[in-house]
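Project outcomes to date are best conveyed with an example. Our students and postdoctoral researchers have been running inverse folding experiments weekly, and each run begins with a structure described purely in tokens. The record below, which covers 273 residues, was selected by the lab manager from last quarter's runs and is presented without edits.
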């Protein structure tokens, strides 16, 4: 079976829909909270710091720092680990972007009118109606800003999704039924090629996260592109010198999942990366 990612604005019914799909299809449901908890544990990052890095809108100075890119690499590697067994529905941080290139992922976006979202915010967060609307708009803008900063794309672009459902007239149960039908189509069938795509993405993102978390390499890691194919890691980019190159290759080769490392550098330069 496939992997389903659910993208939505704040308080748009994503959690309820994910639970419905899990019950209907027998899928395991993975939330943003589980992703953060597992990522923090696997990579030794403070859970609150990781959550903040994945959720708060980037500030001007973030463009000159590598912290956010570290958190994305950790999130991607962790999500690949969590969905590896397939039959998973994930609702939370940018699942449709973190799993790009994996063929058996059904990318769903749900939308809900503001007048339906406000009562949810009032009930779940104890806000007044006026405060609830401001809260929702702020959260939505943070997500949009975060996506533009890290991926250079508009998260509302319909091309990013396989299907979009407006819950103004559909109930959660109706949406669940439609998605359950769609995910059964042959386009989302798991194949050997799909499994290899996920395995390659998992290894590449795990390797990149490991490079980011090495203090000697962290600053340069943002300019290293990492890809993987059948256990072989392919590196490209720009490094400031041979000493750092040795550290990069050593870090990659020490990972038990890596069978070989191949590097093609665009050149070296002396300024700090």
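After processing, the design step wrote out the following sequence:
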């Amino acid at each position: 079976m496939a992997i389903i990612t659910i993208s939505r604005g704040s308080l748009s019914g994503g959690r309820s829909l994910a639970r419905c799909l899990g019950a209907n299809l027998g899928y395991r449901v993975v939330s943003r909270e589980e992703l953060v908890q597992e990522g923090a544990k696997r990579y030794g990052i403070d859970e609150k710091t990781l959550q903040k890095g994945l959720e708060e809108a980037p500030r001007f100075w973030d463009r000159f720092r590598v912290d956010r890119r570290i958190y994305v690499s950790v999130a991607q590697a962790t999500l690949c680990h969590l969905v590896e067994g397939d039959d998973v529905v994930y609702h939370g941080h940018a699942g449709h972007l973190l799993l790009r290139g994996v063929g058996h992922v059904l990318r769903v976006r749900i939308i809900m009118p503001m007048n339906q979202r406000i009562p949810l915010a009032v009930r779940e967060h104890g806000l007044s109606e006026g405060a609830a609307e401001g809260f929702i708009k702020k959260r939505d803008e943070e997500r949009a800003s975060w996506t533009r900063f890290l991926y250079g794309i508009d998260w509302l672009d319909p091309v990013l999704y396989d299907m979009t459902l407006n819950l103004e007239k559909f109930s959660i149960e109706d949406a669940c039924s439609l998605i359950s039908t769609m995910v059964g189509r042959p386009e989302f069938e798991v194949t050997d090629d799909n499994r290899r795509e996920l395995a390659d993405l998992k290894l590449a993102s795990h390797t990149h996260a490991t490079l980011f978390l090495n203090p000697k390499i962290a600053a340069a890691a943002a300019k290293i592109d990492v890809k993987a194919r059948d256990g072989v890691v392919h590196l490209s980019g720009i490094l400031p010198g041979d000493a750092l190159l040795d550290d990069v290759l050593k870090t990659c080769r020490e990972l038990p999942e890596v069978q070989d490392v191949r590097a093609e550098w665009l050149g070296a330069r002396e300024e700090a990366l």
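Residues 3-188 form a domain with the Rossmann fold fold (CATH 3.40.50.300). Confidence is low (pLDDT under 50) at residues 268-273. The training component of this project remains on track.
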